[in-house]
Amino acid sequence: MADYQTQISCRDLRLGYEGRTVTEGLTFEVNRGDYLCVVGENGAGKSTLIKALLGLNPPLSGEIAFPGGLKAAAIGYLPQHNAVQKDFPASVKEIVLSGCLGKGGFQPFYTREQKALAERQMERLGITEIKSRCYRELSGGQRQRVLLARALCATEEILLLDEPVAGLDPKVTKEMYEIIDSLNKSGVTVIMVSHDISAAVRYASHILHLGPTPLFFGPKSSYVKTDIGKMFTDYAGGDDK
Question: What pLDDT digit, counting tens, does each position of 73-106 carry?
Fold first, then answer.
């Protein structure tokens, strides 16, 4: 297969649910190695876009294409934390391994290669020492590392992160952002949905700012010079360093 630069191409999307349009006229691309932050106010369509990219809620019109042949199911997904996840009665290792379930169809057992992959991702995220612990006993930051390792077992090509630092304290938030930045620099494409505009302009290569109609898509360096970018970064106290 050719080494396609563009991994996701969206053209003139109209997104919504039950026939109700949330956002429209949405055109953007995600290229290999990008770090795209999706921002916007509540109700702007961020969650609807996530579902569309994952193939869970098709667009009302327009096209989502994967030029390199990547399937939506092969996107590593880190969802928002919820109470059900916090109480999940499984070990760290079991949860990380479950990221391999979408590979190769139904299998009654994990392969040796999948187990080795899980071990590598746990080491990569610094959670090897807690791999036998129950997930519900972990701190918020540890849980997010576990779910990130699980997502990397699904694929190391694209990570889709939905508010990955929500509810974490400032120290753990900083650590999580640094982990994500390190993964991106290692070659993993990152799409991160976030309310944190200041972090978006600090770490992202590109910004997609959603509204009823798209407000901006392009490089971070251009976003901070626009009226909408200046308004939100001034409000959030962010910069473009």
Answer: 678 999 887 644 666 689 999 999 999 887 655 5
Does residue 152 have a pLDDT over 60?
A: yes
Amino acid at 168: L
Place of tokens 């991702």: 121
Residue 30 burial class via C-beta count within 10 angstroms: exposed 0-12, middle 13-18, buried 19 and up: buried
**CA dist 155 to 5, 71, 145, 159, 175, Å?**
17, 11, 15, 8, 22
Choose among 51, 2, 53, 43: nearest CA to 22: 43
- Residue 56: Cβ-neighbour burial (10 angstroms; 0-12, 13-18, 19+): exposed
Q: Is the pTM higher than 0.85?
A: yes
> Of how many residues is the chain composed?
241
Q: Please report, for the chain, the start and end positions of each structural domain, with discontinuous segments joined by +.
A: 1-71+195-241
CATH code given to domain 1-71+195-241: 3.40.50.300
- Per-residue pLDDT tens over the stretch 196-225: 888 888 999 999 999 877 789 999 999 989
